[in-house]
Amino acid sequence: MRAPGHGGYTVMEKAQVFDAMIAWAEMDIKPVADDVLNVETAANSTYGCAFARNKVGPDDSPAAINTRSTIAPALAAWSSG
């Protein structure tokens, strides 16, 4: 997920990542991911947007809630294009 730090993940995103990690460890189902080693991919304004869920819940931190407004333009551009 594209975020300006590591504190901007929602509870839903953390749960999805954890589930994907368990599926990989227990069933050898490798999760889909952005190519973090590709400089062009990482520099793209839509990098990480495929994995962002722009919904917040009552258990989300202020950092996660604030991140949603920060990344909203990139998410909108990615989903429309």
Largest sheet: none
How many helical elements? 3
Shape call: flat
Number of domains: 1
Query: What is the mean pLDDT?
Result: 80
Compute the CA-based radius of gyration: 13 Å
Distance between the termini: 17 Å
Query: Helix proportion of residues, in percent?
Result: 40-55%
Low-confidence stretches: none
Number of strands: 0
Order of helices and strands: HHH
Helix and strand content put the structural class at mainly alpha
Strand content: under 5%
Question: What this model shows, in words?
Answer:
This protein has three helices and no strands. With 81 residues, it is mainly α.
Helix and strand topology:
Elements: H1 11-27, H2 39-43, H3 62-80
Structural descriptors:
single chain, 81 residues, mainly alpha, flat
Explain briefly what this protein structure is.
This protein has helices at 11-27, 39-43, 62-80.
